[in-house]
Amino acid sequence: GHVYAQRQEYLKAIDAFQKTISLDPRFSEAYNYLGNIYEVLKRDSEAILAYQESTKNLLYATPQFPHWKLGLLYLRQEKYEEALAEFNEVLRIEPNNPVVFDKIGETYLEMGQEDKARDFFEQSVQVSPTVYQTHYKLASLYLKEGSEEKAVETFKKVIEIAPNSPEAGESRKRLEELQ
Description:
elongated, 11 helices, 179 residues, mainly alpha
C-alpha cells in the first residue's frame, strides 16, 4: 500500500491497505495511510472515518498524527469545536508543540475569540521564539486590539527573525503606517 501511495496509484493503495486492515483490524498505521490517501482524493468523509479508526488503538505509537489531520480537516470544514478537540488531543500527547498552539490560535481567530487566539499565539512564540509567522499573526492581533506598542515590538521581531520573508515585508509596511 505504501509503495502504491508513493507511486500515486491511489486505488491500488486503498485496496492494499483495506486488505491489511482485514488481516489486522487494529493496525492503525494502515488507517492513517488510508486517511492520507482519501484526503489527496478529496474524499474527506472517508478520510475522517479512517483517521478516527486509527485513533481507537490505544497502543498506536503515534496517535498525534491522525488527531492532527482530523483537526485540520475539521478546521477546513469550519467545524471549529471538533477541530479544537483534536488539536487539544495532540497537545495532550505533545504538550509543547508550537505548531499546535499556533493552529489552535488560528481556530479561535476563525471563531472570533481573539483573546483566546492571542493566548495561544503567545504560548507558541514562547515555546518556539523563531517562528516568525506566528509572531506576525500575534503582531497583527495586537494591532487590531489597539496594543500599538506590543504590535510595533512584535513586527520588529518578525523582521529580525526573517528579514526576507513576506511577513517581514508586511511588517515593514505596518510599521510605516504606524509612524
